[in-house]
From TrEMBL, chain A:
<dbReference type="InterPro" id="IPR005286">
    <property type="entry name" value="Cell_div_FtsE"/>
</dbReference>
<comment type="similarity">
    <text>Belongs to the ABC transporter superfamily.</text>
</comment>
<keyword id="KW-0472">Membrane</keyword>
<keyword id="KW-1003">Cell membrane</keyword>
<dbReference type="Pfam" id="PF00005">
    <property type="entry name" value="ABC_tran"/>
</dbReference>
<dbReference type="GO" id="GO:0051301">
    <property type="term" value="P:cell division"/>
</dbReference>
<keyword id="KW-0067">ATP-binding</keyword>
<feature type="compositionally biased region" description="Basic and acidic residues">
    <location>
        <begin position="307"/>
        <end position="317"/>
    </location>
</feature>
<dbReference type="GO" id="GO:0005886">
    <property type="term" value="C:plasma membrane"/>
</dbReference>
From TrEMBL, chain B:
<keyword id="KW-1003">Cell membrane</keyword>
<feature type="transmembrane region" description="Helical">
    <location>
        <begin position="276"/>
        <end position="299"/>
    </location>
</feature>
<feature type="transmembrane region" description="Helical">
    <location>
        <begin position="21"/>
        <end position="41"/>
    </location>
</feature>
<feature type="transmembrane region" description="Helical">
    <location>
        <begin position="180"/>
        <end position="202"/>
    </location>
</feature>
<keyword id="KW-1133">Transmembrane helix</keyword>
<dbReference type="InterPro" id="IPR003838">
    <property type="entry name" value="ABC3_permease_C"/>
</dbReference>
<feature type="domain" description="ABC3 transporter permease C-terminal">
    <location>
        <begin position="185"/>
        <end position="304"/>
    </location>
</feature>
<dbReference type="InterPro" id="IPR004513">
    <property type="entry name" value="FtsX"/>
</dbReference>
<dbReference type="Pfam" id="PF18075">
    <property type="entry name" value="FtsX_ECD"/>
</dbReference>
Length: 328, 305
């Protein structure tokens, strides 16, 4: 369904690549968790699937098509077959839940009759059949995300990309969203979900792909959020230290020990001893996750934030502006 | 679904940037008025020139008993002098320039005179004897009139040689200069209009970033995303073109037809309100095309695929 063939993406010449030598395949109907600290390349991977960005090297195949050979006028057709869900929902604030879903159909020229049938169907599927007339700000976070998922799925795409869909939600709401994504997956859609949600990954026990510094360091068929593997950053085994990656290369002898395919294997003690910062506590790692949010929202971000909202974000989070600068 | 959506978006967009849209309309209207004025003046010049070609361009008046020119010291032109003019017109030197000519005898001249001043009491005081014989020459090429004039001017028995083209020259000159001036202003104003359209589109895009982001995400086609913006600029420019046509109508109706034509003569001033039939659609189309071109450039800069 989606295949990355030795893909490298460097945003700016001379900088460390956002994604490096990525070789991975997601097959039809799969449910994949994409984990990793932010800046590890998860969002870039998703952007490449949407052809938001083109790889610097290598080839991305989506539904059997080589995206580099896809002319730009066919990109909309590609995107109609891919749903996308964000951490911050991205509903149009002036439109009701119904209109938000309708919008996704209307702008691709769906006949009105079909729209009238599909939208209520979607509202029912996400459990909001009685809240179609509410504006986004009249809905709870979980409900807004349900509307966003309905909007992403209303075209019955064969792929659904979810970038931290539960990142802004409380655990029980998050679990409901996860159920919804599972249901969509069971209907045959490939779901790729980037997440920092430990309980979601642990609960579903699906394929887990962890990225560190633009590379896939872990690909488990039925994995949990953490792993004893020494290369895992999110498990606290390797410092999230991408700026010093040169000093701690991923292909460090101590990290490699043919770990792949053997998740049960105990991490080698030598790995820990060679890394002075590995005694980080789990809480430290979690704090990292929290800070990562503004940076993780980068898909379509610059298109979306209007002046007022940008000001609000700046007021709220003094670091957000810096992050935006870095992303450009 | 589509048409209604696009129409709604255009209206929303126009309303959201109403102050910018108004300035676009005004600047477009003024610049298109200048363009229209220039076009009408050129049309007037062309009409005038073609009238000259149709009519006799050079007229030779031979001496009458009342002529005061030095070449008429011998009184009215003699038959020999008349014959020599006739011969010269048919001779090898001039015939390449002359397409045709007609001779007006004294009797015919009196008839024309009486017709022109019919009803005036002094008309009856003149007889055919008082009238000059004249030759009315149509040239092969109106620009060669100077040579013909030169040839006859000052000959014995020739009172006056008039060149219509020369008589019209200052007028045509004024019109040509005015056209240049109007078009110069029009170009400046059109540049301002184009930049304003580009800015308006940019603001409109910024105001609809969320919608655009979602449209791109769900796979709306580029044309579909851009069309409302393109049409938004076009609508403003078309309104500007309509206003420009209105201003031209006012100018043609009150200034040209109400004042210039009666003052300078109906045969001379040929442009009028009827010319709006071609000028107005031209201006409106020009406005729309320029604004769409400007929008396309602006959209390519501010709205990535």
């Amino acid at each position: 369904m989606i295949r990355f063939d030795d893909v490298t993406k460097t945003y700016m010449r001379g900088q460390h690549p956002a994604v490096e030598n990525l070789d991975i395949e997601f097959s039809r109907g799969e449910f994949v968790f994409l984990v990793g600290a932010s800046g590890s390349g998860k969002s870039t991977l998703m952007r490449m699937v949407l052809k938001e960005v083109n790889p610097t090297r290598g080839t991305v195949y989506v539904a059997g098509k080589d995206l580099s050979r896809l002319p730009s006028w066919k990109v909309p057709t590609l995107r109609r077959d891919i749903g996308m869900v964000f951490q911050d929902f991205r509903l149009l604030p002036s439109k009701t839940a119904y209109q938000n879903i309708e919008f996704a159909l209307a702008v691709i020229g769906t006949p009105r009759k079909v729209v009238r049938r599909l939208v209520p169907e979607m509202l029912e599927m996400v459990g909001l059949e009685d809240k179609g007339k509410r504006l986004p700000h009249e809905l709870s976070g979980g409900e807004q995300q349900r509307v966003a998922i309905a909007r992403a799925y209303v075209n019955r795409p064969s792929i659904l990309l979810a970038d931290e869909p539960t990142g802004n939600l409380d655990p029980s709401t998050a679990s409901g969203i996860l159920d919804l994504l599972t249901e969509i997956n069971e209907r045959g859609t490939t779901v790729v979900m980037a997440t920092h949600d430990r309980s979601a990954v642990d609960r579903l026990q699906r394929r887990v792909v962890e990225m560190v510094g633009g590379q896939v360091v872990r690909d488990e068929e039925r994995g949990g959020y953490e792993t004893p593997a020494p290369v895992s950053v999110i498990s606290g085994n390797l410092p999230d230290d991408s700026s010093h990656r040169e000093e701690h290369p991923l292909d460090d002898e101590s990290l490699v020990p043919d770990w792949e395919g053997a998740p049960e294997q105990e991490p080698e003690t030598s790995a820990r001893s060679t890394e002075p910062q590995t005694d980080q506590t789990r809480e430290d790692v979690r704090e990292d996750d929290g800070e990562d949010r503004p940076a993780a929202r980068d898909i379509l971000e610059e298109d979306l934030i209007d002046e007022r909202e940008a000001q609000r974000v700046r007021d709220e989070d003094p670091f957000a502006a810096d992050d935006e600068e870095e992303l450009r | 679904m589509r048409a209604r959506y696009i129409l709604g978006e255009i209206l929303t967009g126009l309303w959201r940037n109403i102050s910018m849209v108004i300035s676009v309309i005004i600047v477009t209207a003024v610049s298109l008025t200048f363009v229209g004025t220039g076009a009408l003046m050129q049309k007037q010049i062309m009409d005038m020139k073609s009238t000259l070609v149709e009519q006799a361009q050079v007229t030779i008046f031979l001496c009458s008993p009342h002529s005061t020119a030095a070449s008429c010291a011998g009184g009215a032109a003699t038959d020999a002098q008349i014959a020599s003019v006739r011969e010269a017109l048919e001779g090898d030197v001039l015939s390449p320039y002359v397409a045709s000519y007609s001779e007006r005898s004294q009797e015919e001249a009196l008839g024309v005179y009486q017709e022109q001043f019919a009803g005036e009491s002094f008309v009856s005081n003149f007889t055919a004897e008082d009238m000059p014989v004249s030759f009315h020459i149509t040239l092969e090429n109106a620009d060669d009139s100077a040579a013909v004039v030169e040839f006859f001017q000052g000959r014995d028995g020739v009172d006056e040689v008039t060149d219509l083209l020369n008589a019209f020259a200052p007028f045509i000159d004024v019109l040509n200069q005015s056209t240049l001036f109007a078009l110069g202003l029009a170009v400046l104003m059109l540049i301002a209009a184009l930049l304003l359209v580009a800015t308006t589109i940019r603001m409109s895009v910024a105001g609809r970033r969320r919608e655009i982001a979602i449209m791109r995400l769900v796979g709306a086609s580029n044309l579909f995303i851009r069309l409302p913006f393109l049409l938004e600029g076009a609508v403003a420019a078309i309104i500007g073109g309509v206003i420009a046509s209105g201003m031209l109508w006012v100018g043609l109706h009150y200034i040209v037809q109400g004042w210039l034509a009666p003052t300078l003569g109906e045969q001379l001033i040929t442009v009028g309100v009827a010319d709006l039939a071609w000028a107005a659609p031209l201006l409106i189309a020009l406005g729309a095309v320029l604004s769409i071109a400007s929008s396309v450039v602006s959209l390519n800069r501010y709205l990535k695929v």
